[in-house]
Amino acid sequence: MQAIVDALKATITRTNATDLQASFARDAGRFSSFSARFDDLLMDFSKCAVNDEIMALLEKLFTEGAVAEKREEMFAGKAINFTENRAVLHTALRNRSNTPVLVDGKDVMPDVNAVLDAMGKFADGVRSGTLNGATGKKITDVVNIGIGGSDLGPVMATLALAPFHDGPRAHFVSNVDGAHIADTLKLLDAETTLFIVASKTFTTIETMTNAATARAFIADKLGEEAVKCHFAAVSTALEKVAAFGIESDRIFGFWDWVGGRYSIWSAIGLPLMLAIGPENFGGFLDGAHAMDKHFRKAPVRENLPALLGLIGFYHRNVLDYPSRAILPYDQRLSRFPAYLQQLDMESNGKGVTIDGTPVEGQSGPVVWGEPGTNGQHAFYQLIHQGTSVIPAEFMVAAKGFEPNLRHQHELLIANCLAQSAALMKGRTLEEAKAQLLKSGMDEAKADHIAPHRVFSGNRPSITFVYDQLTPFALGRLIALYEHRVFVEGVLFRINSFDQWGVELGKELATGLLPVVQGKQGTDGQDASTAGLVKALLG
Ligand code: F6P
Fold it and tell me: EC number(s) of the enzyme (predicted)?
């Protein structure tokens, strides 16, 4: 592997691959050589520092990294999350072909289908008004209480699929900050509100605390007996849910082989299903399944997740770019960067390889972003002229859902394409100076100002284009990024499916609670923590 990384570095230098302007000037066919399509989803990576030699080396990396073999292990239910001895089978949740998927010799598909069926019946009941609140009123508002993977997927997807939203209003409470639930409860009528407590473990302190507040809200307004009509739960820990007092026919299970950040396809997707209906939720699963099949079968040069993962690895570990910006030109994907932040950084933010040795080179990059065009008026300055190169990933639909606002969609597309072109083309000193002289500036002043208006260009980006953000398209897009994270994780030689790094802070918070409550002194705390406690408690 290291030999291929070294060969890539040498090839970049020898072929001057980072000079994108020269690459485009040399080769009129560059777009078709370095783009790939899966149905209406097009991935243009011609504005990255690639050429045929580099692509050949990346393909070699895919082979030598045994990505295909690991991919089959994942799909086959092998316990590739070995630190927790778990299979990684979010793909089974959207296995619309319904072929058997074995975990420890047992086909999981009957259980997957049974939960999906139960979710569908529950969602239909709530949406149609046959499953109502305790006073008989129809549910108008659903509040999902969860955090991390039990929040970000449903929030992101519900917003993304707003044009399909014909069910109750959706709200999401995640933060333990009481402000979050307080501000949400202010909007709600207890009689018409359903709470979904979503937690894989059903121990997460934020979720349990908010759930208790929500329970008290219902019990106060409608009486203790009403709780059963206003709560549902989603978890792998079914006994813990029962202990909370949620009726068994309102508990939707999933399994330890579904990682939290990969769980939107499971019962964690219930708020989405309530919003858009079971049929559209099915379309969402179909899209992801289509991407799964593509990932398993398409040759590397046509395989979108493989290409995205290889280029991601190349950017991070060969070109040493520390972060990547996710820039959807799709307002409804405004939470997609935050969703990918968990998916990518919780998966690939690791420092130890599968052998227990330190990672050589780098593992996952910092992932961040905002929708365009908003970001253009905020942080794009740094992407264009800052001292770090930040690969950008743009995405835009050919069609919006507002035919009467076509002009706005045209502006959106024009801006998206303009940004990737500007990043690639840049502006030379001569061009900058000529522009200033043309505007009437004198020679001396133009010489002084022009350097500030130079753009180096040659800044990499990938652009995704799709027809329209339907449930199918969204499912496909998320699955694409999931598999990208997988490919990169295999190449980094890490376990992408555990998250031990989040534990220490949780343990320390538990220990600090009595200190913050004033029940215990600061003995044993470090001087900074003790000083901060004192400042807060007075
Ligand atoms: O603390 C991190 C984490 O475990 C995530 O991996 C997970 O998505 C989130 O917390 C919520 O966990 P749970 O669904 O068990 O409440």
Answer: 5.3.1.9
39-68: b (≥16 Cβ within 10 Å) or e: eebbbbbbbbbbbeebbebbbbbbeebebe
Q: Are strands 41-44 and 35-38 parallel, antiparallel or unpaired?
A: antiparallel
DSSP 50-69: --HHHHHHHHHHHHHTTHHH
* 503 CB-side CA count, 13 A: 4
Closest CA to 202 of 147, 123, 154: 147
164 Cα to the center of ligand 1, angstroms: 28
> Cβ(393)–Cβ(326) under 8 Å?
yes
The Cα-based distances of 470 to 174, 285, 329, 372 in angstroms read 26, 12, 15, 19
* φ, ψ at 235 (rounded to 5°): -165, 165
Q: What atom in ligand 1 is closest to the CA of residue 260? A: 8
Residues facing residue 463 across a β-bridge: 44, 394
Please tell me the distance from the alpha carbon of residue 198 to that of residue 419, in angstroms, as a whole number. 39
Report which DSSP code applies to 293: H
Active-site positions read: 346, 377, 506
CA–centroid distance, residue 147 to ligand 1 (Å)? 6
| Pocket of ligand 1 from Cβ distances under 6 Å | 147-150, 199-201, 204, 207, 260-261, 346, 499, 502
pTM: 0.97
Residues 6+ apart with CB under 8 A from 67: 306, 309, 487, 490, 491
How far is 90 from 95, CA to CA, in rounded Å?
Answer: 9
Q: Each residue of 425-484: pLDDT tens digit?
A: 999 999 999 999 999 999 999 999 999 999 999 999 999 999 999 999 999 999 999 999
